[in-house]
Amino acid sequence: MKSQTADRTFDVVNLIVLLLTTLLCLAPFLHILAISFSSPGAISSGKVSLLPVEWSIEAYKKVFTDAAMIKSLGFTIMLTGITTVLCMLMTIAIGYPLSRSKLKGRKWIMLVVVITMFFSGGIIPEYILVRNLHLLDTIWALILPGLINPFYLIILVSFFINIPESLEESAEIDGSSHFRTLLSIMLPLSMPVIATLSLFYAVGRWNGFQDTLMYITKPELYPLQLKLYQMIQNNMITDLLRNEGTQLTTMVPEALKAASVIFATVPILIVYPWLQRYFVSGVMLGAVKG
User: Fold this and answer.
1) Boundary of a domain, candidates 17, 32, 56
2) Does residue 192 share a domain with residue 84?
């Protein structure tokens, strides 16, 4: 009886701690969300905390009616999709051979990969390389430099290594080529890690803007995060309000910033539930019979 009481007490305390931790993590996001839906007067007087005060959607009207923001959103979605697909194709193309014990010199190749995690040429040599390749002011300047992440590559190689070689040997006996084995056996068994790495690549590209500052000068190639960066630096707020014919005194800049942050955050958040079904364990249970 005492044991059951102690277990219940532990569960209750554990639940309370988890709820408080979750609320603490969500507090900044809830605060931004509340500001985006609050009236200018409530924001100026500092009344907004975690819940909206005097509901208003004027900030969202300004964001959704701004052609530059909508165009930037579409470009960012396209850029993120292309980057994620190409990054995963290259990571898989390199990771699968490096996971096979028959590949000669694979330890030395892995050593070179690991070295790149600790040492790099730096920003200036990278910029000179991109410039000499005539990639400035092109979408490829935002894709090619970060096409393969060494850390993600190591994760994928480790996962491939843990897949029993007996599966590959059985496929070879049936006349399957390496490419066929990769498509029919390795990739289906690796969907959890592929989904996870794809999400990492997508989030990294979606949140990135530093490379755009270095390589891009054309406004039509500005991703959404760079728009937010410029807005936070107070370079775009006045223009955005004037383009809508709004008096600057009727709109608090913080509300516009908050609405833009939510506008840029929600699309990538939608991806998480869609990939959640792949985050499972035991996908290979029963794949090999002794």
Assistant:
1) 56
2) yes
- In degrees rounded to 5, what are phi and psi of residue 176? -80, 140
Q: Has residue 289 got a pLDDT over 70?
A: no
On whether both 88 and 213 belong to a single domain, the answer is: yes
- State the Cα–Cα distance between residues 182 and 178, nearest whole angstrom: 6
Per-residue pLDDT tens for 266-275? 888 887 777 6
Residue pLDDT, tens place only, 199-250 = 889 988 998 888 888 999 888 888 988 888 877 776 555 555 555 555 444 4
- State which residues form the domain around 8: 2-56
Backbone angles phi, psi at 237, to 5 degrees: -60, -50
Q: How many Cα atoms sit within 13 Å of 7 on the Cβ side? A: 4
Task: Tell me the DSSP string of 38-98.
Answer: B-HHHHHTT--SSS-SSB--HHHHHHHT-HHHHHHHHHHHHHHHHHHHHHHHHHHHHHHHH
How much of the chain, in percent, has pLDDT values that exceed 90? 14
Q: What is the DSSP string of 146-163?
A: GS--HHHHHHHHHHHHHS
In this structure, the answer to whether residues 74 and 17 fall within a common structural domain is no
User: DSSP of 99-130, one letter per residue?
Assistant: T-TTSTTHHHHHHHHHHHHH----HHHHHHHH
Is residue 48 located within the same domain as residue 69? no
Residues 119 and 10 grouped into a single domain: no
Regarding whether 73 and 34 lie in a shared domain, the answer is no
Mean of the per-residue pLDDT values of the chain: 81
Model pLDDT for residues 127-168, shown as the tens digit of each residue: 999 999 999 999 999 999 888 899 999 989 988 888 887 887
